């Protein structure tokens, strides 16, 4: 029996991307995911980055994107009227590789019930447990990002682009790193710097990285962190403003980001920068079940 999800030909990826402009910015990060996938596959054709659609056709309003790099990252999408199509597709497909840790990233509130029901059914069969995180999706237009005035950089610091040598520190304090298989989550983060970009605030006296933000596969500002001894100095706000303006000026990109639910301090930070909350999203990570 043929799998209900078939690979979407790459020439149709831009057509799928453009369908996601609907109800903007409700699905902006899904639009960004496809846009990023196009860019990454052009840069690295051998990258395991695929888009699957019912019968290999983008016009169903459903897709499942796969990035097999470290984590087996799964991005699912359906317009509200297409939820039943998504439900059938993910319940019958064999494309998900459960032997690796699977991350369902930023599942939109409009179809999260379909994904939760699917994971609840499969967890016993695959002997896995599900770790769930709830986040709020925030958006700021490229026009607003471009016109914002950049903050003054503290005299003791300088702004630089991140490189792969910075990954070890970034990964070491990333709260969502894989503690059992750290090489998988480290490889996942490497994509963001190698194929996208990130900015960091460095101390001039010793070149130490003290605050950073990465541009992720959802076209999002992510992994925003400041080392403990330099918190509450406004460094996180600085790197966020620098990267969001850079993306708007150089690539014409809106800024999206995700804040863990009830993280009041972070929400206040982004609201002060005129980000608007759009929706609630859910992240599901699978792990082998242990007694």
TrEMBL record:
Record InterPro entries: Acyl-CoA_N-acyltransferase, Acyl_CoA_acyltransferase, DUF5645, GCN5-like_dom, GNAT_dom
MF annotations from Gene Ontology: acyltransferase activity, transferring groups other than amino-acyl groups
PROSITE patterns associated with the record: GNAT
Span of domain N-acetyltransferase: 157-291
Coiled-coil ranges from the UniProt annotation: none
Pfam families listed in its UniProt record: DUF5645, FR47
Name of protein: N-acetyltransferase domain-containing protein
